[in-house]
């Protein structure tokens, strides 16, 4: 180690109190501390000095009189502070002189020696490692140090000092050296700029790494490579080296000796020229990360790292790739975000690499990558690749699986993906392009392109003279519409799916030229385009201000003329003196008013004026008319007496000018004697409040045209009418206790009318805040506002407060019943009866709120609210249940109509059967929902509320823990997707529900590697439990099921179906009910589509009605568990079932597959889907080390029968203890309790199956009457657990879902896990009947009714019956055959399990009875 950079002696320390500052009510003294070239600043108050002095006097016996005394009076005076400043400086200097070598710990911490001074830093570090060093080494975690700490340790070792000079053993330097000798993982992080309050630059501090003897991994950042000493000592042990923001050359890190020896050579290399040094290689280095540096070339220093496998040189300044041919073990190379323009003959430099990252460079050709035959992953994103022909250079790479070409110029080429994939020929299905696996549709298109290319090649060979070959044009993106005549052009038959744009066949819904949206009741709908005309639109604000000012002047002129006429009439009855005084007073008032003086008629008059009471001192102008803002009046106002001077005219013009500060487009309810609904524009100016109505017949002619065709400002202004124009002193801002914050209530002091304003929540909140300030500034008494509340507290129950805190919305909407609904008003659900009021004409809006559990519908009687406000005279905080009512609808039952769901997944079709010209405008305000057995239309006056409601509803339903409904439309019959050449006929009013022109991330879910998806057929025993929705799903195949999933079931667009499984499930909250289920496993969620009886289990998350209100739509109960919320999966014995455990009791579902093959297949697909949840780091620069991107694997580890997946989901398999418990229970039932322990040792369970016991109800005809010609009875399937041992067979009832107990369970389940129903010896088996007599594919085991003494079960009261009743067969499950026989009719769903049961039963029976088991076939 060189000694030149390190000083040999400790320089003099100085301390100086340079100033003071007043903080709150005490003085803080500023202290400058100097230690050689290092300086820093410390700030302390006098009490800190006093505490320091107390510690020093107690420990070191410092003179108590050394510190200046306290002073209570005048302690912050300038003279005292200056005098004390000098005294404190002298105090500190005396202490430093008294302790020149070993500074006491209190003094060191007081002067921040532990942060900036080498002795203090090493002492603090030594004490930390003394306390925690062993724990840190055992944990094996990365330990972080700063360059300043390493510099201090290095300098301490340079100085001739004892390792513990202050007498404290905890601060001995040996603790640091012992720790560094054993440390394996180190991170050195510097800082840019000075450290803290000092002048220390860490990048200029030299430090030595030779004290680390066992390092395996080191990461250095923000350090100068010139200051790093001893790095070469790590060559023998280091496996991972990361350097960031620290060097400009690779040589300075890999060969630090190069600064001394100009001619050097790597150890073991042959050199033809003389060398001055032979440098040892990095023997164990396998990962080198030198990203985020200033490296401009890959120099010959890489010869010293021959074993490197992971090399990261991203975010540097490389323009060429050289010398990498010396790295024979390279596997992963990252050269992203450099300056590479050309990469020639990459195989000669990179060798057999598997991963190559070239993102963020300037590559425009790929000729150099043609021979990288071992390449698996290639990232070429963010380059300059523009020609598809360049892909041919990598299209023949045999191992390439992942290719990223995003953000290249070629990405804008139409059908870019299919044209790129076509370059890979037969390997197109194996290539994942841009992170998206190739879909079936893309593969079909690729096949067509290949066929076209081959046809071109054949014709070119045949006609060598003519290279222009005429070929029929084939449009791969063409979509066939229903009813289109067949084309005469030659077409190629592929598996691509044609799309029905509008169905046009018969339906239960009558056809009409006007759709539901346009035929519903008319209400004001505010166009979304008006939002752009806000206060930020200067052109609109300028025109609006000018026209409001003109209207105000015109109104002022008219009012003054009317006042003059009335004044002349009054003067006929008064004296001349009174008339002159009145005129003088009028002129005085007019000079102080900022608006127009208005005489207003009665409220009921239709001329636009109403009577208003004015103040006694000042008459303020009010305009509440329907004045159209088409233009200003040309007439000038004439004063009643005399001619005003020019100054007065200018002053009046200034007063009449309206400066607009805020514009709010809103939906307004004006309550006079009736409720009027208007499209309104609320305007706030500097001194006037204005409310303008938009005419009902207003239409924006250019709303669909480009903005360049003309400004709509004049068009909109011509459709506005002034309704209210008055100063803020005359305005009332109400804060009703029952009104939510999404409603702004306004009134006028001299008018009984009330205005209720609705708009976007945030804009309305800002408007209310600004309006409150303007009213207060005007001097008006404003009632105290309520605390912010989204919902009225008076309507919320105490247990709903927590739910209301997360509520979103307050959207005004009209709830209209559909005329096409199949339910009658008398059969409505009670919730719908509360929501839909038939006596409201016209329909008034309700407010919609969304919580994580409910849709809250707030109905308000605006007439009564306005009447109460008029009567209360400001006392508006008394709640009244008659004005408002809150209806709570379970969120799981709020289902979007399939048309709405399909429009969210696919692009809305431009063609519609509705001929109303306003259809497109109205459809942007409407949402069709299915609720409580009826189809409802939600009509939002504000278009933005519709999109916000749909987004929030989708988000809340996705996070809903309990059951929820999904709506499935009836499939179109016949369908074009079944390769029929003749066009089919479809239902009207909807796009074909089976079409698959969806934009999803679906990959090869439906290819040959997943044959279980094509076999979408439930087992025969599940058919009786299929509800209409499940029957619909069971009839879908292939692309139809995929389209249904993405359109109507999936919660996100990027999901991909992995598996479809039909089985029975048991919910944790309803352990006694077994439900038929269609399980859909996607890459994001597990969906359980349940039979209709699930809605009656009392979970309160859905309504108990399964009527959709639309005969063409079926509802289906759905329970979804996100893979990110999955905690564990319990696998049952012999893989007969599995239990999915989420984060709550609603997310615990036991799936009874009754088939080991189906269970294994599901677990395999589930693990694969969980692995996809781990997103790989992006090619962008990240804090994660390069080597960790490739060392993280997706495999789990097995511990105690628990497979912990890399996603931290536990797969818990049956343990030996669980099998032992079952064996003990069965053995205890078989033998006496005393012999249970001894017999269980040789008692083995050979087979465990979940079966059904077929029972014939006693009320139905017996078997004999069935054979004599009567109709056969309907069998009942009872779920049972069959256990086969070496000597006996048992039937049990088992609680599958409650065991093992979840972590949140507070008490054991109500029933035991196993309950014995029937037990028989195998030697008593007489014969086995196979056939369809009782139940298809059922087994009938016929036993001789000779129970032995070893099969006596524990007696319970269930074994005894009433004296007059016939005793039922033992166990309640067996049916009687001939006299002396007992029959078990057992149905085993799985064919493999059924054959295995017969085989094992026959083998054991033959071993016990020494003959073959009789097996008979029945009809």
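^ Assign residues to that structure.
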């Amino acid at each position: 180690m060189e000694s030149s950079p390190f000083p040999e002696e400790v320089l003099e320390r100085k301390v100086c109190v340079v100033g003071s500052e007043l903080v709150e009510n005490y003085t803080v003294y500023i202290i400058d501390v100097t230690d050689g070239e290092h300086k820093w600043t410390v700030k302390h108050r006098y009490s800190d000095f006093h505490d320091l002095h107390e510690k020093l006097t107690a420990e070191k016996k410092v003179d108590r009189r050394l510190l200046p005394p306290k002073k209570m009076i005048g302690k912050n005076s300038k003279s005292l502070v200056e005098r004390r400043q000098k005294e404190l400086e002298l105090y500190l200097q005396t202490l430093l002189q008294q302790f020149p070598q070993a500074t006491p710990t209190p003094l060191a911490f007081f002067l921040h020696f532990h942060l900036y001074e080498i002795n203090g830093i090493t002492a603090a570090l030594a004490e930390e490692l003394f306390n925690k060093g062993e724990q840190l080494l055992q944990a094996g975690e990365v330990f972080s140090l700063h360059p300043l700490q390493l510099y201090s340790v290095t300098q301490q070792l340079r100085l001739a000092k004892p390792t513990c000079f202050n007498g404290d053993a905890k601060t001995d330097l040996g603790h640091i050296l012992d720790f560094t000798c054993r440390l394996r993982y180190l991170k050195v992080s510097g800082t840019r700029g000075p450290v803290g309050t000092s002048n220390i630059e860490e990048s200029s501090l030299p430090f030595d790494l030779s004290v680390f003897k066992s390092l395996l991994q080191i990461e250095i950042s923000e350090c100068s490579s010139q200051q790093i000493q001893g790095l070469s000592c790590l060559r023998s042990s280091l496996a991972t080296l990361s350097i960031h923001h620290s060097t400009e050359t690779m040589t300075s890190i890999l060969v630090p000796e190069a600064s001394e020896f100009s001619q050097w050579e790597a150890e073991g290399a042959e050199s033809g020229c003389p060398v001055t040094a032979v440098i040892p290689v990095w023997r164990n280095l396998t990962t080198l990360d030198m990203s985020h540096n200033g490296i401009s070339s890959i120099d010959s220093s890489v010869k010293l790292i021959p074993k490197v496998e992971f090399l990261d040189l991203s975010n540097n300044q490389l323009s060429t790739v050289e010398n990498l041919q010396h790295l024979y073990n390279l596997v992963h190379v990252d050269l992203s975000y450099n300056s590479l323009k050309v990469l020639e003959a990459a195989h000669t430099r990179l060798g057999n690499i598997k991963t190559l990252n070239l993102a963020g460079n300037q590559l425009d050709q790929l000729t150099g990558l043609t021979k990288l035959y071992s390449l698996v992953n290639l990232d070429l994103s963010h380059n300059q690749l523009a020609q598809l022909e360049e892909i041919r250079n990598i299209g023949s790479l045999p191992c390439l699986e992942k290719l990223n070409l995003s953000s290249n110029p070629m990405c804008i080429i139409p059908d870019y993906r299919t044209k790129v994939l076509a370059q890979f020929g037969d390997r197109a299905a194996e290539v994942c392009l841009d992170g998206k696996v190739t879909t079936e549709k893309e593969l079909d298109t690729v096949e067509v392109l290949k066929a076209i290319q081959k046809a071109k090649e054949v014709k070119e060979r045949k006609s060598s003279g003519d290279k222009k070959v005429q070929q029929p044009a084939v449009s791969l993106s063409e979509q066939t519409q229903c009813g289109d005549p067949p084309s005469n052009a030659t077409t190629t038959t592929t598996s691509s799916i044609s799309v029905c744009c509008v169905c046009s066949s018969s339906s239960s819904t009558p056809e009409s030229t006007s759709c539901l949206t346009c035929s519903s009741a008319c209400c004001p709908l505010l166009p979304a385009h008006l939002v752009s005309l806000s206060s930020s639109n200067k052109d609109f604000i300028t025109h609006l201000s000018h026209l409001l000012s003109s209207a105000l002047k015109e109104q002022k002129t008219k009012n003054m003329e009317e006042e003059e006429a009335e004044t002349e009439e009054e003067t006929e009855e008064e004296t001349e003196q009174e008339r002159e005084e009145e005129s003088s007073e009028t002129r005085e008032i007019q000079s102080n008013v900022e608006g127009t003086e208005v005489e207003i008629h009665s409220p009921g008059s239709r001329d636009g004026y109403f009577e208003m009471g004015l103040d006694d001192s000042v008459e303020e102008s009010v305009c509440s008319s329907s004045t159209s803002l088409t233009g200003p009046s040309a007439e000038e106002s004439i004063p009643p007496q005399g001619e005003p001077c020019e100054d007065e005219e200018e002053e009046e013009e200034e007063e009449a000018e309206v400066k607009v500060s805020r514009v709010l487009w809103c939906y307004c309810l004006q309550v006079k004697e009736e409720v009027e609904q208007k499209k309104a524009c609320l305007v706030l100016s500097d001194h006037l409040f204005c409310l303008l109505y938009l005419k009902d017949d207003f239409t924006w002619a250019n709303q669909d045209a480009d903005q360049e065709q003309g400004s709509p400002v004049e068009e909109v202004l011509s459709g506005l009418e002034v309704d209210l124009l008055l100063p803020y002193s005359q305005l009332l801002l109400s804060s009703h206790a029952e009104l939510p914050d999404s409603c702004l209530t306004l009134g006028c002091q001299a008018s009984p009318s009330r205005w209720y304003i609705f708009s976007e929540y945030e804009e309305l909140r800002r408007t209310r805040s600004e309006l409150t300030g303007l009213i207060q500034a005007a001097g008006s008494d404003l009632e105290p506002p309520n605390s912010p509340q989204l919902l009225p507290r008076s309507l919320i129950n105490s247990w709903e407060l927590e739910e209301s805190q997360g509520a979103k919305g307050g959207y005004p909407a009209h709830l209209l019943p559909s005329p096409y609904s199949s339910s009658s008003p008398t059969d409505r659900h009670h919730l719908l009866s509360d929501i839909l009021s038939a006596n409201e004409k016209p329909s008034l809006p309700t407010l919609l709120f969304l919580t994580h559990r409910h849709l809250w519908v707030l109905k308000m009687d605006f007439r009564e609210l306005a009447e109460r406000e008029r009567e209360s005279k400001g006392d508006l905080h008394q709640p009244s249940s008659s004005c408002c009512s809150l209806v709570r609808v379970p969120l799981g039952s709020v289902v979007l109509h399939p048309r709405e769901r399909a429009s969210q997944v696919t692009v809305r079709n431009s063609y519609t059967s509705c001929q109303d010209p306003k259809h497109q405008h109205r459809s942007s305000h409407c949402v069709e929902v299915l609720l409580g057995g009826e189809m409802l239309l939600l009509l939002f006056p504000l278009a933005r509320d519709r999109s916000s409601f749909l987004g929030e509803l989708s988000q809340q339903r996705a996070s809903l823990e309990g059951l929820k409904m999904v709506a499935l439309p009836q499939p179109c019959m016949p369908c074009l997707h079944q390769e029929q050449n003749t066009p089919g006929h479809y239902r009207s009013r909807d796009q074909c529900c089976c079409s698959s022109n969806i934009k999803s991330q679906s990959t090869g879910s439906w290819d040959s590697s997943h044959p279980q998806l094509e076999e979408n057929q439930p087992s025969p025993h599940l058919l009786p439990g299929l509800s209409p929705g499940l029957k619909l799903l069971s009839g879908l195949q292939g692309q139809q099921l995929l389209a249904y999933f993405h359109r109507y079931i999936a919660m996100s667009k990027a999901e991909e179906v992995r598996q479809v499984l039909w089985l029975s499930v048991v919910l944790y909250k309803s352990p006694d009910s077994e439900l038929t289920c269609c399980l859909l496993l996607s890459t994001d969620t597990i969906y359980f589509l349940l039979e209709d009886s699930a809605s009656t289990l009392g979970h309160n998350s859905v309504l108990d009605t399964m009527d959709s209100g639309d005969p063409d739509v079926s509802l289906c109960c759905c329970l979804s568990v996100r893979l990110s919320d999955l905690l564990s999966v319990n696998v049952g014995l012999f893989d007969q079932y599995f239990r999915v455990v989420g984060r709550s009791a609603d997310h615990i579902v036991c799936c009874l597959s009754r088939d080991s093959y189906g269970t294994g297949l599901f677990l395999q697909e589930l693990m694969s889907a969980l692995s996809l949840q781990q997103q790989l780091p992006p090619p962008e620069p990240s804090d994660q080390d390069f080597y960790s991107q490739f060392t993280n694997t997706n495999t789990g580890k097995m511990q105690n029968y628990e497979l912990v997946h890399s996603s931290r989901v536990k797969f818990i398999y049956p343990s030996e203890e669980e099998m032992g418990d079952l064996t003990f229970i069965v053995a205890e039932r078989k033998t006496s309790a005393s012999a249970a322990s001894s017999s269980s040792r040789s008692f083995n369970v050979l087979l465990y199956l979940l079966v059904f016991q077929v029972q014939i109800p006693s009320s139905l005809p017996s078997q004999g009457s069935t054979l004599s010609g009567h109709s056969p009875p309907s069998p009942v399937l009872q779920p049972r657990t069959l256990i086969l041992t070496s000597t006996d067979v048992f039937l049990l009832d088992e609680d599958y879902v409650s065991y093992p107990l979840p972590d949140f369970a507070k008490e054991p389940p109500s029933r035991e896990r196993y309950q014995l129903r029937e037990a028989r010896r195998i030697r008593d088996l007489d014969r086995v009947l196979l056939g369809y007599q009782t139940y298809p594919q059922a087994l009938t085991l016929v036993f001789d009714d000779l129970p032995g003494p070893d099969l006596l079960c524990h007696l319970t009261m269930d074994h005894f019956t009433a004296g007059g009743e016939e005793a039922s067969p033992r166990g309640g499950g067996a049916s009687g055959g001939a006299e002396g026989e007992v029959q078990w009719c057992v149905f085993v769903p799985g064919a493999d399990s059924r054959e295995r049961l017969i085989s094992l039963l026959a083998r054991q029976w033959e071993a016990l009875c020494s003959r073959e088991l009789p097996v008979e076939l029945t009809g």
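The mean pLDDT is 75.
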